[in-house]
Write a structure and sequence with these properties.
Radius of gyration: 13 Å
Low-confidence stretches: none
CATH architecture: Alpha-Beta Complex
CATH topology: Aspartate Aminotransferase, domain 1
Strand content: 15-25%
Helix content: 40-55%
Largest sheet: 4 strands, antiparallel
Distance between the termini: 11 Å
Structural class: alpha+beta
Number of helices: 3
Number of strands: 4
Length: 89
């Protein structure tokens, strides 16, 4: 249910979508769960459209994040998918 656009990244930024869930809707659900993500074209609309991507979500991790932060992100990702599937997405 997760489309990862940069699976081989060695950095702390991941670009992804949740299948069938508009990124602008998903980012609101994450925000309600106290997780800050970005959604949209990330200043690269032409590149996104070239690859047929209508925006995406972007999460950024850095030195101040820990294992619990990553686990919480994954937990909320699962909850986001469940919530939107129940709504018919």
């Amino acid at each position: 249910d997760v489309i990862l656009y940069n699976p081989k990244t060695e950095g702390g930024i991941i670009a992804f979508n949740l299948k069938g869930i508009p990124p602008h809707d998903a980012v609101t659900f994450y925000a309600d769960q106290q997780i800050a993500l970005r959604s949209g074209y990330h200043c690269a609309e032409l590149v996104s459209r070239f690859f047929g991507i209508n925006g995406c979500l972007r999460a950024s991790f850095y030195l101040y994040n820990n294992k619990a932060d990553v686990e919480r992100f994954l937990e909320v990702t699962r909850a986001t998918i469940t919530y939107f599937r129940r709504k018919g997405f």
